[in-house]
Amino acid sequence: MKVWPFSTLTNPHAGTVPYLATAWVTCLVPAMAITLAMQAFLPPEMLENINETVVDDSVPVALLLVLLVIASPLVETVGMFVLFWLMDQRKLPLKLQIVLSAIVWGLIHNLLAPGWGYTTTWLFFIFSLVYVTQRQRSGDRAFWMTSGVHGLNNATASIGILVEMAS
Known about the structure:
Helix content: over 70%
Mean pLDDT: 92
Number of strands: 0
Distance between the termini: 47 Å
């Protein structure tokens, strides 16, 4: 028996809007919990390092938003496609591919800023599930749905970044 949200996230024929909304909420709520746990347990300097890595004060806000909400999801989704193609060549089981993709992307983000990988591992688990589910319909749909969920997630995070920048 499949339960929500995974009943929707593993259904390649779910409607676009309900699918994107479900994937976005499934990213957002646990990511916020992970972030709150990080704030409670990690040294503040580590969290500041993440913010400094993501936000360059010399970049205009509009450009920063374009980079975070549009460019980054598109580029990283291309990277996911390459990673999944490589894992497909190795004939790795699909569930293992999803987990490995999440771990790889978490590690990449953690290399950029220690601590960042904790939240991104969860996010890329969902992005990877979206990709694998949607590619059952088409590669194009997998690309745009994965990029869309990623963009929605980054747009939400950007609101927090903008509020912090303004204060």
